[in-house]
Queue: 2 jobs
Job 1
Amino acid sequence: MEANSSKKKGRISRVRHWCSKHFSDVPLLSWLIGAPVAAVLEDFVGTPLALGLGLPKVPVLFGFVLMLKKPLLIPSILIYMILIYILPVVVTAKLTAPLFNRLASKLLNVSGRLSVVIHLLLLYAGLHLWSSISAYRLLTLKLTLIAVMVTLSLNVINGYMGEFSCSHPGFMALGAYGASVFTVLLFVNDKIFGPAHLPAYLAPYMFPIALILGGCLASLGALAIAIPSFRTRGDYLAIISLAFMFIVKSMIENLEVVGGPRGLSSQPDLAALPIVFIWAVLCIWITNNFVRSTMGKALNAVRDNELAADAMTVNTRRTKIIAFLFGAFWAGVAGGLFAHVLRYVNPGTFGIQKLAEVLAMVYFGGLNSVYGSILGAVSLSLLSEMLRPLEMLKWIIIPLLLILLMIFRPTGLISFKEFDVIKLIQPRNNSREKS
Amino acid sequence: MTFFFQNVVNALQWGSFYALIALGYSMVYGILMLFNFAHGDIFMVGAYIGCGVATVIITLSSSGVIVLPHWLILVLTILISMFLTSFVGMLVERIGYRPLRDAPRASAAITGLMIGIILETGNLLLLGAQRIKFPSLVHSTTYNIGGVFVTNKKIMIVVVSIGLMLALDQFVRRTKYGMAMRAMAFDYVVVPLMGVPINTIASMTFAIGSALAAAAGILFGIAYPVLDPYMGIIVGWKAFVAAILGGRGSILGATLAGFLMGFIEIFVAMVFPSTLRDLIAYSIILLILVFRPHGFFGEPYSARLRL
Amino acid sequence: MRKLLVLLLSIGLLCLVFTPVSWGGKNVIKIGINAPLTGDIPKVGEGTKYAAEMWLEDINKEGGLKVGDKVYKVELVIEDNESKAESAVKANTKLITEDEVLVIVGPQASKQAIPAGEVANNYKTPMISPWSTNPATTKDRPYVFRGCFLDPFQGPVIANFVTKEFGFKKAAVLYDVASDYPKGLAEFFKKAWEDLHGPGSVVAFESFTTKDADFSSQLTKIIKSGAEFLFTPQYYNEVALIVQQAHELGWNKPIVGSDSWGSAELIKLCGKDCYGLFFSTHYASAGAKGKTKEFIDRYKKKYGYVPDDVAALTWDSLGIVKTAIQNCGKITGNIEKDRQCVRDAMAKIKEYKGITGDMTFTEDGDPIKCAVIVKISDKGEFEFYKSVCP
């Protein structure tokens, strides 16, 4: 057994070594250019290739759904994945590496911001092309991006500040309803809110205002938790936030104006992929700056020892209140996007089930880490879509996976790691320079 | 006036469930400083085990293998189910909590949550989607005391749960193990160094908590004889609120807070329009915590999270 | 690494050789089922799934579905919506764009059917929700239909029935505030009752929240209010608890219910407490005749229990789907055209003879159907008592 496992380990490390030997000099820019290439390839030859390999159509989420339904097709799916995704990306990345290393360093010299924008544009191009093939992919992608925002905003409170807040579904609900009421009131002929007050062409411009309004509403709600948090924390705050979640849900159920338990529908179709993408990027960028600022360090200080932090001139009250308002704001924005992606909200969505989902994403990805939140949200969202064919067994496998992860990596996949954008986008030709 | 007393009786019954379940949370929380979010689902498993045990005993009894009087069937069901469910609790501790004892507390809370989901789905897979009727262990008789309707079930439920709480109190106070538990609750780091076997005590804590949950499950089954795999979620979370509200590791606190939750829910629905019940009930709890930030019996210690 | 690649490629080539080239493709009609297999109401999902599988069995026995002069194989794509709104939307999107189904049957509960209907309508895919009674599901959505009557119809039916049968003046209502079906029906009933007996004739209008088990406080209030009967449009599992607790609190007046009572499990869970009570529903299982009886007997034999109304309605909805596809005349293989054709054929269906009654769709895609008042007999069977037509 032991010999076997060590052999396995040896093989893994050999693969890792092989990878680092051949790909350590590939900059992010090259990888990102590979993504649109693969997506374009899929656009053009995906369908014939899939049919040729005996697949019914282009595998939608990396073929997982199909693999679970028809295990006989696994080899075909693997070949498809290699031919369409892995090979083109690897080849493009490797081929363009020398050129793009130079480009990346030049860009970085001109302006870091510009470089970031170009990277993001490439990423967006990849995602856009990838998701344009199927509406289901598009929907999954949008909801995944929203999940990233929610997870990240909860990580600010639970990870960076070290509270155990259970109120995020409540914040999302406030944001979702706030933004929905705003857009439905202004732009939709609704039987509850009367005719549209503004012409429809203004709607896309007003949508950010709607989202910010939703976020602010959520922040306002967060005061109900932030103020008690001055005097208590940890466990007691956990149940305060839990009570808050129940209160929000019950309140919306009793508000006939917004449809009560029947929910609110007919939101205008404003949350297209670029909009969701921009908000998600904004959320990641601002949150990352927030947690890397002195404010973020103050959060960590409050988490590690409140008394000591106070003694070291950290204004703990201010820190706490800002963290709660900040986290709630982004949860509210995410809620607003969520409502406009589904174009329907009901209070039942924002209950215990949602809470378990968001908490799982935060702790799966990793505490105190922007990377972790992104990874956690993306992997759990995709996983729960990919395992769909398993029906009930899905809800055994995902929890089991999480338990195992918690046992072997108690703080999550990538925890306590700083998200350094410049380090990420810089050229990777150091090794050659050294030699 | 009868209206008021009728609701007192209602609240006593409803509160005893919260109190019994909250005790399980409170034990684990007080001694190991962990949230056992699987507890609501252990309650559910306890109710199902109780249902199975009761069915077996009743079948045996009615087929004439061993003829037992009614009260003995009830007592046997409760005892056997408590015994069986305590193993479920120990298993949960062994799988989900022992490997994580030195990890951040929140991680253990997540494993608890996930074990809960596995228990629910596992039940759904094993027994299918239909709801199960809890066999009638007590023949319901209604007494009319001056306009207040009281059933023998209600009396039995309140008496049995208070009895169990007193027994737990005595156990923790009088026995060697109880002393070890109190010591662990007092200092989690040093006491194990004094030769107190931490694993045994942790297992025992979970076992006792789960046994109480099983008793609550059976009493719940007697009062509300419809079982489904998701029955433990809401009751569990509310009992969790009660456990924390009672103060860390305080048996009296958890009991009182459990009854308080019951009284708040019943009386809010009595006084206000019942659509607003949750809204008002939780606002009251939120207000209580704003003014008593450490619950009823918890000492205002600075809960430093081990993150 | 290279060896691995070669190995994979060769396996792939082998697969290519062995996979049958005709991968179904044009000769298959796919029908999507969007059902809550997990989550709050797994029993509803189970009923849906079983009814659909039984229906497919029939189709397969005939060798396929005959459209025009060609016979097509029918494939069911069953998706779990976890009883969540967002999941129902995802499932519908997947069914429409990935699996390219021709028609969708489901989701059952209104909270999933309303948002999912939006998706189906946007993609111009016909969808029929067998069980959703909320008006919003089909409103202004030409592609969305339903298989049951609506709440605004059922509320007055019950109000009229009680007035005529018992001559009562004062009503009490107990319902779940967090679930849209009971809440909607409770409100329609209240309105209908007050139209009949004047404002204030509903003397108690009490509520609770989903998953509650204790209703003693609300019931105590209802008893105090002096109501002559209690109307509770709840699901059967809650009904068992409500009825029993009401009796324990000294209530001995009638309790009346709605179509959500109509499950065989009600009697199993509720026992003698429920005997003699009335409720309105889509069909009565005891004493059923003809096709209805045939369906009930088959279902019972196969799965071991009497089918709920969900199963019966799903069965009828699938029957309507089948008729619509056949009326459409031919399947072109162009999915968009076919969907349009099926939608038009469905809207034109006149007096479809289903096991839950005759159905003709209105402009909105809602059937005009009769409701049945059922009495629970002393043997615990659902006996036909009266039929009320619009």
Job 2
Amino acid sequence: MVELTLPKNSKVIKGKVWPKPDGAANLREYRIYRWSPDDAENPRLDTFYVDVDDCGPMILDGLLWVKDNIDPTLTLRRSCREGICGSCAMNINGANTLACTKGMDECGKGNIAVHPLPHQPVVKDLVTDLSKFYEQHAEIQPFLQSNDNPAAEHSQTPGEREKLDGLYECILCASCSTSCPSYWWNGDKGDENEYLGPAALLQAYRWLQDSRDDERNARLDMLEDNFKLYRCHTIMNCTQVCPKGLNPAEAIAGIKRMLVERSR
Amino acid sequence: MSQKGTAHFIFQRGTALVMIPLVIWFVIALISHADDTRPELMVWIAKPWTALPLGLLILAGFFHMRLGIEILIDDYIHKPDTRGMLLFLNTLFALILGAVALWSIIAITLIV
């Protein structure tokens, strides 16, 4: 059976409340998930008070302010701080998104809860191990496979190129896949009966739609599987949370449509 | 073992589509026959224009049920042996229930 409750050592306990910074007029309360592999402690939610007059407006700015001014051991991934690299994907107030493009003002008036991406092994604090996610991306062979060998580039009409809009922009932040209940249950079982998840399937559809690619049938053969593809039950969390505004659910429906048309 | 899922996908939607008019008809018919006595109801069921759609509803309904429960088993039961056994029992359950329901209609048409 799937695990419906957390193991004992994964239960999140109340953490430390760090003191408010001196002289700060405008504070924002952050509750941040903390866990370290270096001790046997359970994960905990630490409370920090961020001086919003002393940092930028985004959630990531607040996290970096905490790291710089309160607790330098707070661990998180970040790089571009402008929604391009996908490194700072995390669960903010219950929804996966990028900390760098989510404003504190978008999080209401209350405290801001920051957790790592759900259902992934935690490396430390807000950093998760996405190895499986990348393996699944590799499985769909996300590269051009063409029998043509043109002297210059592979050409496309503007219409053919337009078909890739809304697909190629994925930054592999894993927000979609790790928000999907089907992916939680069937994404990492360790056997061949695994769901690929919305991110990998969005990219699979991107290559299925590419007019230059000659492996459409082989790609569809690989995807035609009860578990790899058909664990998607159109829950739509993926589309709801995608920080780039993409629609993986529609792409998955597109793959299913192609398979139905092929089976006629 | 890798299993293809497109046929399952098509059948699930196909049976759902077939059931939309049949369920509407069935609900309206049930309401309009709510005050019937048992013999009156049996006479109604034995009519070809009742028995035929009712049989179709039973076939589509139990097939759809089998397909739906199969998804639940695939989603939540991870041990291959247990899953295989439950999938078999699911099919058996749907077959037995469907057969009993169909036989009931045939029996009524023979009796009346």
